[in-house]
Every structure is written in structure tokens, then in C-alpha cells.
Amino acid sequence: MGLISGLFRKRSYTTITGSQLQKMMNNNNILILDVRSSGEYKGGHIPNARNISVDTLSSKLPTLNLYTDSEIVAYCSSGGRSARACDILSKNGFNKVYNLSGGIYFYKGKLTKN
């Protein structure tokens, strides 16, 4: 895809706020995907988030097949890596993909460490 067409390509995911994520978390059929490094994840993450680095996401897509029609919210530190992750997911048949605007710093809930 050329640079110009890439600039005008329609995004196939939705950007959400931290408060929207907190409302969505009541849904049992949601996957929260932390696409940061494992070290960042261990330093603090959104409860029940699954950690798959954006750099390894493409190779780990088969492990997410159960979530093809589920809501998937990706987040990172600021929103850049999670936007890339959302593009990867959308292009590979995941239908309800969301990017947390501003990353983990805009999530207002308590973080879990492990």
C-alpha cells in the first residue's frame, strides 16, 4: 500500500476512552489485550488483561481465535502500539476491535502487578 493510500485508508477499529473501557469491562466476553513488553506488563496492567507484545502479535493470532467475534480492547503506554495491534487484528478477521485512547495512562481504574 502506498503512502498516500495509507493516509486515507479507513480505520477498521474504534478508539475508546478509559471511561468507555470501564463500562465495557462488565461484559464477560471481552478480551483486554496489553500489547506492551512483558516488563511493562509486570510493572502494572489493567486487571485480567492478557499480555501479547505487538511485535509478536501476528505470530500469536491463532491463540486468539476464540475471540474473533468478541470485543477486543488493545492498549499500550500511549496508544501507538495498540493502534498497530488493532490494525493487525482487524486485517485478520477480528470484528469488534477497540484502541484505548492515550494508553494505560488514561485508564482510571486500579492496576494489577504480577
From TrEMBL:
Would you say which domain of life the source belongs to? Answer: Bacteria
Every copy of the Rhodanese domain together lies at 26-112
Query: InterPro entries given for it?
Result: GlpE_sulfurtransferase, Rhodanese-like_dom, Rhodanese-like_dom_sf
Family matches, as Pfam families: Rhodanese (PF00581)
Q: Which Gene3D superfamilies match?
A: Rhodanese-like domain
Q: Which PANTHER family match?
A: FAD-DEPENDENT OXIDOREDUCTASE (PTHR43031), PYRIDINE NUCLEOTIDE-DISULPHIDE OXIDOREDUCTASE (PTHR43031:SF1)
Q: What is this protein called?
A: Rhodanese domain-containing protein
Question: From what organism does this protein derive?
Answer: Terrisporobacter glycolicus ATCC 14880 = DSM 1288
